[in-house]
Amino acid sequence: MEHVELGIIEGFYGRPWSWEERAGTLSFLAPHGYRFFLYAPKADPWLRRRWQEDHPPELEDRLRSLAGECRESGVRFGIGLSPYEIWLDFGDAARAALARKLDFFDDLGIQDLALLFDDMRGDDPALADRQVEIVEWAAARTRADRVVVCPTYYSDDPVLDRVFGARPAGYLERLGQALDPSIELFWTGEEVVSRELSPAHLERVAGQLRRKPFLWDNYPVNDGQRMSQYLHLRAFTGRPSSIRGMVSAHGINPALQPTLTRIPALTLAESYRLGEAYAYGVAFRQAAAAVLGDELGRMVREDLLTLQDLGLDRLGEREPALRDRYQGVDHPAAREIIAWLDGDYRITDEIVQTQ
C-alpha cells in the first residue's frame, strides 16, 4: 500500500507553541507516520513582515535546538518564509536579504524550505511569473532538498478573492507550467478550511498544477476570531484513504492547543492505515485514550459536544462545571482546557491583521 508522508505545519495565528511543546508533539507523532515539521508560526515576525531582518540570537539558538530534536526523532525539519510582497520589487536589496535568510536557514540545517505567498494581495496579471522568478532564484541557492510553495490563491475558495483581490486568469496553470517539476505546491482544497478532500477535486487540481498537490490541511487549526472559541478535537473525516496516491504529502495545520491537537492527528494516521475499515468514532475514542489516558479521555468524550460545538461565548452555566471538572486534573491537556476557558487562546481580528 502506498505510503503517505504526514507532517505538522505550525502555520497558525496567535500564541505559538512553546519549544518544549513543539519537541514533545513531534516526538509523540513521529512513530505514527508524522515525518516532517514545518516551523512557520504567524507570530514570528522575522519570517513575515520583518523577514529582511536577522533573527535574534536567542531565537536562532532555539531553532537550532529544534532542528536537532527533529533529527533525533527522524523528522524532517523545515521553515516557512513569507517574504511579504517581495514580488512587487525583486531588486538587488530584496535579493540580498533573501540570500542572507537562505544562508541562515542552511546553517540551521533545514531540509524543507517553504516559500509562502499567502496573505498578500495578488490581483496582478504578472503575479505567477514574478513568483516563479523568486522561487527559481531561491531554489537554486538553498541547500534544502525540498522546496514547497504556497500560492497566493491556494484554494478555490472565493474568500481569497474578496480579501486579496481577484485571482489572475490562469494563475495556477501558469505556476504549474513554469515551475520546475521538482518544486512542490501547497493546496488546502475547495475551501480554505475544507470539509472534504475528494479524489475528483485533487485530480483536477493536479492537472492544473502539473504535479500532485502538497496538502496544507486546515484542520484541526482553530486560530480565527470565530474558530478560537472552539476546541477542534474530533477525528478526521472527509479525507478518504483513496487520496493517498493523489497527493505528494499531507500536512496538518494544528490547533493552538499542542496536546489536544494530537488526538485528531492520530486519527488521520489511522484513516490512512485502515482505509475502508476506518470508523471515525472508534478512532477518536482510541486516540483520546492514547493521548489523555483512559479517565481524562472518557471525560473529554463526554464533553465533546460542549467543547467543539458550543463555543466559549455560549457556555453559560456549563463554564463553572467545566472548570470544576478539569481544574484538578494534572495533565497538560486539562490545563489547555482551563486556559481555553480563561480566554488565553482567543484570537482577534487585530491579531490576524498584524501578525
Question: How would you summarize the topology of this molecule?
Answer:
Elements: E1 6-10, H1 19-29, E2 34-39, H2 57-73, E3 76-81, H3 92-108, E4 112-116, H4 127-139, E5 146-150, H5 159-164, H6 171-178, E6 184-187, H7 199-209, E7 214-217, E8 249-252, H8 262-274, H9 280-292, H10 294-302, H11 304-310, H12 318-327, H13 332-341, H14 349-354
Helix pairs in contact: 1-2, 4-6, 8-9, 9-10, 12-13
Instruction: Give the beta-strand count.
Output: 8
Helix-strand makeup class = alpha/beta
Strand adjacency order, main sheet: 1-2-3-4-5-6-7-8
Q: Which descriptor suits the 3D outline? A: globular
What is the CA–CA distance across the termini? 41 Å
Under CATH at level 1, the class stands as: Alpha Beta
Integer count of domains: 1
**What Rg is obtained from the alpha carbons, in whole angstroms?**
20 Å
Number of helices: 14
Q: Assess the beta-strand content as a share of residues.
A: 5-15%
Question: Percentage of helical residues?
Answer: 40-55%
Query: H/E series, N to C?
Result: EHEHEHEHEHHEHEEHHHHHHH
- Named CATH architecture: Alpha-Beta Barrel
Q: Please outline the major beta sheet.
A: 8 strands, parallel, barrel
Poorly predicted runs of 5 or more residues: none
The average pLDDT is 96
Q: Do you know the CATH topology? A: TIM Barrel
> Can you say what the CATH homologous superfamily is?
Glycosidases
Could you give a quick summary of the protein structure above?
The chain is α/β, with parallel strands linked by helices and 355 residues long.
